[in-house]
């Protein structure tokens, strides 16, 4: 019988020295607590956000939190699926202009290296530790039950090989746009039909051409001092994705360096056990484990009974996994015949409660000399700015130890917050943009919170000006 995950009765969570857990829980909903400023904070959470970005975000989040969202998604889906040149951004400059002036510029980093580099620099100027950059182009694949097929590319070796080569070159081009310490995000299905078919079959080793391509990407990433994670995908693909990614970590996450991270979806009931398996392998084999933790993005496609029954269960599981890893413990059961391995955790979430819990626990353990692992956090471009910018603003005084009188240890706990960016032409980004719209539809409360934060900042600026 498999051991069951148990939730600790009194999790070791510290919200801040000035705001203990009980106070924080009482002042905001557990599913999406607001990031309140500490008494030392001198700047409003969104004070550094450019006015143009603020107004665009206010407009879009207000629309997404209104009844306009559902028909807007229907229109965007029609544009995505249409074969008409009138609705193609690459063929109709008016359509391209409309999309770029609204949702593209808000959610995407740019169409070329010049635009992307400017966006990356803008993010770092705002105080973000770095960025995660991904190429938005996707392979044309459909899942039908337990089988997969590719619409256009089937049983044509030359086309399959070209898809892999284009995927490799696209990722290497993306890598050149980021710097040391930054991330890329990579989807294995982006390598085209050969990858889709191998993943759907559950092949534990990628096809030779894909293996060679991802090895070259790993070597280039390590040489540049950057990192990447492999995105989670539908359940039909995930066992093979885990196997391929573990093999990459086994090869490249050595000697204190973490080049590759795997993504775990906390809405899956098996997620804690899956992380336990990763920890056990890393501990026994002597490589470093990188985990990016998300809630999950494929609920419409995945097998429902493998997903937690309620959002509250998913939230509880997510926070339990984070606190366990930050305490150097397995979230499933005690590790057998091995010690906790060298590990890194990236908390990828728009949930303010989870961000607060993760950072406060990490901060507490560092300041008190307790064993922990490095923590980084991130949100998507154009989403949850009140969460990421709020955290940066709250602890901004501690970024300079000499001016604030803090010790180097205290200064080192300044939150490491990243922004996740997508790049590509307007047409290449259409599927990505549609997913962002659908994601906002499924998180109305969070979108309303963002809209309220943007309105509050807009009124604050008007008040200062007048």
Attribute tags:
single chain; 466 residues; alpha/beta; TIM Barrel; eight-stranded parallel β-barrel; two-stranded antiparallel sheet; 17 helices; 11% strand; globular
Can you tell me about this structure?
It is built from 17 helices and ten strands. 48% of the residues lie in helices and 11% in strands. Mean pLDDT is 84; it is low at 8-41, 140-151 and 398-403. The protein has helices at 21-27, 51-64, 69-81, 93-107, 113-125, 157-176, 193-201, 208-224, 238-252, 271-285, 311-326, 352-367, 385-394, 401-404, 408-411, 430-441, 444-465; strands at 130-135, 141-144, 147-150, 183-186, 227-230, 260-265, 289-294, 343-348, 375-380, 417-423. It has a single domain (109-444), classed as TIM Barrel (Alpha-Beta Barrel). By secondary structure, the chain is an alpha/beta fold. Strand 6 (260-265), helix 10 and strand 7 form a beta-alpha-beta unit. It has an eight-stranded parallel barrel, surrounded by eight helices. The chain has a two-stranded antiparallel sheet with strand order 2-3.
Radius of gyration: 22 Å
The number of E-state strands comes to 10
Helix content: 40-55%
How would a crystallographer describe the biggest sheet?
Answer: 8 strands, parallel, barrel
Q: How many helices in DSSP terms?
A: 17
**Which H/E pattern describes the elements?**
HHHHHEEEHEHHEHEHEHEHEHHHEHH
Q: What is the architecture at the second tier of CATH?
A: Alpha-Beta Barrel
CATH class: Alpha Beta
Content-based structural category: alpha/beta
Shape: globular
């Amino acid at each position: 019988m498999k051991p069951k995950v148990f939730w600790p009765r009194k999790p070791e969570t510290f919200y801040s020295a000035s705001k203990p857990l009980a106070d924080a829980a009482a002042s905001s909903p557990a599913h999406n607590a607001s990031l309140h400023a500490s008494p030392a904070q001198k700047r409003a959470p969104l004070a550094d956000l450019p006015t143009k970005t603020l107004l665009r975000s206010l407009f879009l989040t207000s629309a997404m939190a209104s009844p306009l969202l559902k028909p807007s998604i229907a229109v965007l889906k029609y544009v995505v699926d249409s074969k008409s040149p009138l609705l193609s951004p690459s063929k109709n400059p008016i359509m391209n202009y409309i999309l770029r002036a609204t949702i593209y510029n808000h959610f995407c980093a740019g169409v070329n290296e010049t635009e992307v580099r400017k966006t990356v620099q803008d993010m770092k100027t705002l105080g973000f530790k770095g960025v995660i950059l991904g190429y938005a182009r996707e392979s044309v694949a459909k899942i039908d039950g337990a089988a997969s097929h590719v619409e256009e590319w089937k049983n044509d070796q030359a086309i399959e090989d070209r898809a892999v080569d284009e995927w490799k070159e696209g990722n290497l081009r993306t890598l050149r746009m980021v710097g040391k310490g930054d991330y890329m995000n990579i989807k294995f299905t982006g390598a085209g039909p050969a990858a889709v078919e191998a993943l759907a079959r559950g092949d534990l080793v990628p096809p030779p051409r894909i293996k060679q391509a991802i090895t070259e990407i790993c070597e280039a990433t390590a040489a540049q001092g950057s990192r990447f994670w492999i995105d989670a995908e539908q359940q039909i693909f995930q066992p093979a994705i885990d196997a391929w990614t573990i093999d990459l970590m086994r090869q490249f996450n050595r000697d204190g360096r973490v080049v590759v991270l795997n993504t775990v979806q906390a809405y899956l009931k098996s997620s804690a056990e899956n992380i336990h398996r990763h920890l056990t392998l890393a501990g026994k084999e002597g490589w470093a484990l990188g985990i990016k933790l998300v809630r999950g993005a494929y609920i419409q496609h995945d097998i429902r009974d493998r997903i937690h029954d309620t959002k509250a269960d998913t939230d509880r599981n997510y926070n339990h996994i984070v606190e366990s890893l930050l305490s150097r413990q397995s979230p499933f059961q005690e590790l057998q015949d091995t010690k906790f391995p060298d590990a890194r955790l990236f908390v990828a979430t728009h949930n303010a409660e989870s961000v607060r819990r993760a950072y406060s626990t990490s901060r507490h353990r560092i300041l008190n000399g307790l064993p922990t692992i490095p923590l980084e956090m991130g949100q998507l471009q154009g989403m949850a700015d009140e969460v990421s910018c709020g955290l940066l603003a709250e602890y901004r005084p501690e970024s300079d130890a000499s001016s604030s009188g803090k010790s180097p240890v205290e200064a080192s706990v300044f939150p490491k917050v990243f922004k996740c960016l997508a790049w590509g032409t307007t047409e290449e980004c259409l599927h990505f943009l549609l997913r962002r719209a659908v994601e906002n539809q499924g998180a109305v409360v969070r979108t309303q919170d963002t809209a309220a934060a943007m309105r509050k900042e807009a009124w604050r600026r008007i008040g200062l000006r007048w």
